[in-house]
Amino acid sequence: MSDLEAFQDVDGCSEMQWNDGMATARADAESASLEEAFDGLGVERVAPAESETLGTGVDSLDEALDGGLRSGLLTELAETGASSGGQVLLLHLLAGMRRAMRFAALVDGADGFDPQSSPPELLEHLLWARCRSAGEAMKLADALLRDENLGMVLVDLRGCETRELRRVKSADWYRLQRLAERSGAYVCVFTPEAMIPSAQVRVRLAGQYGIGEMDSDLRGLGCGLEFEVLRKRTRERGGFAQLVRRAVG
Question: CA-CA distance, 159 to 192, in Å (whole number)?
Fold first, then answer.
């Protein structure tokens, strides 16, 4: 198998029971090692914040995700073909943040977002960060997830070149997942193929919108969204991503 074929097959491999079991075992081992290392050093473990749920506004997707997106989790939205609904879903997520009266950030990895395609009211609570590469987008997402004022961070990598995305290290994805848990924000990454090993939720957008459907309103477009949920996990308390802080006194 070539490197490219292996990269494109990451989604199928990541769903194998063996890999999931190995990932769980590794996380348990790392958690135990941390616990031993911090013993007697005056360090207190702090559980992540309670997870919240945000409805996407797409009824079928919310039902499949048990109510909608979960805060503190890293969600991958893979748009495997042109006009599969990625932009429709992105606007639905912005609408959800507007309903919640919270700020959102869009990290635009290939500077492809067209604000003219969005209803003006959805831009009122949006920070639009225009990037020139996937690496730049990852660094900016890392920084934004440390800002407690943001309720959602969207990272759009759909327009980035494959060779750029392949340069993103697994450690960078796992750090993004841990930052998502620490911040308690809704974190969604749009990708051209399933590729994020640390994604706790993975949805593949599988439909195709025709030109005639573009005249529909946002809710109507959402009703036509076709997708497949490939991975759906919940955050576990007391696991490897649990935070620590030095006890005072």
Answer: 8
Contact assessment for residue 88 and residue 212, using Cβ atoms and an 8 Å cutoff: no
Question: 142: which residues sit within 8 A by CB, 6+ positions away?
Answer: 175, 176, 179
Is 166 within 8 Å of 196 (Cβ atoms)? no
Phi and psi at 125, nearest 5°, equal -115, 25
Determine the Cα–Cα distance for residues 145 and 155; give it in Å rounded to an integer. Answer: 11
The first and second tokens of residue 150, run together, are 């943001």
Using one digit for the tens of pLDDT, what is the confidence trace for 162-175?
Answer: 899 999 999 999 99
pLDDT reported for residue 41: 52
Note the pTM of the prediction, 2 decimals: 0.75
Alpha helices in 39-148 (DSSP H): 59-64, 86-99, 134-144
Separation between Cα atoms, residue 39 and residue 135, nearest integer Å: 37
Q: Which amino acid is at 139?
A: K
Residue 189 and residue 174: Cα distance in Å, rounded?
13
Minimal CA–CA distance to 73: which of 158, 214, 188, 165?
A: 188
CA-wise closest residue to 86 among 217, 203, 169: 203
Closest CA to 245 of 36, 50, 33, 45: 45
A 10 A CB-CB count for 70 gives: 22
Residue 239 gets the label, from left (phi > 0), alpha (psi -120 to 50) or beta, of: beta
User: Torsion-angle region of residue 111: left (phi > 0), alpha (psi -120 to 50) or beta?
Assistant: left
